[in-house]
Amino acid sequence: MEKVSVLHIITNLALGGAQKNALYTIANLDSEKYEKYFISAPWGGLYDDIGRYNAISFHFLKCLKRSFSPIQDILAFFALARFMKQKKISIVHTHSSKAGILGRWAAKFAEVPIIIHSVHGWSFHEYLPKPVKAVYIFLERLTAGITARFVTVSDSDIKKGLDNKIGTAKQYEKIRYGIEINKFYNAAKRHTKEEKPIVGMIACLKAQKNPLDFIKAAVIIAKQNKEVDFVCIGDGPLRHKMEREIKRNELGSRVKLLGWRKDIPDLISLMDVVVLSSLWEGLPIALLEAMASAKPIVAYDTDGIREVVKQGDNGYLIKPGDAAGLAKRIQELLDNRQLAKSMGQKGRRRLEKAAFSAADMMNNIENLYERLLSKQGARKG
Predict the structure, then answer these.
(1) 318 and 234, same structural domain?
(2) Out of 213, 271, 276, 338, which could bridge 323 as a Cys pair, Cβ 3.0 to 4.6 Å?
(3) Is 200 exposed, middle or buried (0-12, 13-18, 19+ CB in 10 A)?
(4) Once rounded to an integer, what is the mean pLDDT over residues 78-105?
């Protein structure tokens, strides 16, 4: 049987949730059924890992930029379309907003029969200037007309898309992120928790993740609790501002910025509380990993976060921007180890019940592909 050619496109290979999801998905598609291609810009924390993906044909475009760049965008558009025609791609599956717009229109130009876009949180949000937000919504509405399916990771992304008249309800399909849960179970068994409390966050250090509020909360807690340490795993444009705040508050020995790490299961196993100060989100993989590790969560009450963190059950939700409220709830969990342990265990049970395994995700993705291929075949017949 002839293989189906599938191309996944994402802007870059930074160590983020969308990138990890895109790579995991293409890597774990059935190689007996699918000829697998992947395109991104040639940089990012995951770029060095591509050598271990033997069954994927990687192609890199330097002109694929995250920011708006007319000349580079035109070059990327034609490079993508040319590649799709040469390889006779049957399914184009895009990730991230920029690659999503360019990739889908290139696929339309190349007459690719099936075009899918994964929404890892919409590009438009309440913190954007209104004219910029309006442009993003307009582009998404326009591109929805050539999109067979939107794959979303949360109900909030479906609602947000439909509220902004992007596509129709039948175009949306919710497929939750899947994680390899056993990696986190096994890490917890390997490590003995230190007595000294550790509060941690895993996030790209950019405006969306709002990491300076994590530092603000750390400053408040550090004044009350001389024992607790803080770690932030990730990197990005706000790192220097965070370093300045850490230095200004004389917390250099207690707040560690670890950069991007690949031993996440081991690091989470050492934390007492996992924090996320995002202002907007799709569905953060870091919180699923915290739940798999049986850790209580304190996070801002936004979008997909409230779909996995239930107030007072497996963590606490705080009004966005309230760093003092964040600090108060973190300290409450540090003071009550039994409550923290109970919340962590409830989070793990919630995860187990809600089909967040990598196997569930892959079954759902392949099922979607097969249904769309069947419809395409019926049309041709």
Answers:
(1) yes
(2) 213
(3) buried
(4) 97
Whole domain around residue 157: which residue ranges? 4-178+357-380
Which of 160, 173, 95 minimizes the C-alpha distance to 124?
Answer: 160
Greatest alpha-carbon span in the chain:
72
246/349 same-domain check: yes
* Short-list 77, 71, 46, CA closest to 143: 77
Task: Report the domain count for the chain.
Answer: 2
Q: Is the C-alpha dihedral spanning 132, 137, 140, 142 positive or negative?
A: negative
- Could you tell me the two tokens for 34? 């699918």
Rounded Cα distance, 72 and 304, in Å: 33
Residues 189 and 171 in one domain: no
Is the same domain home to 195 and 68? no
Question: Is a pLDDT exceeding 90 seen at residue 354?
Answer: no
* Residue 130 burial (10 A CB sphere; 0-12, 13-18, 19+): exposed
Half-sphere exposure of residue 189, counting CA atoms within 13 Å on the CB side? Answer: 6
Q: Is the pLDDT of residue 124 over 60?
A: yes
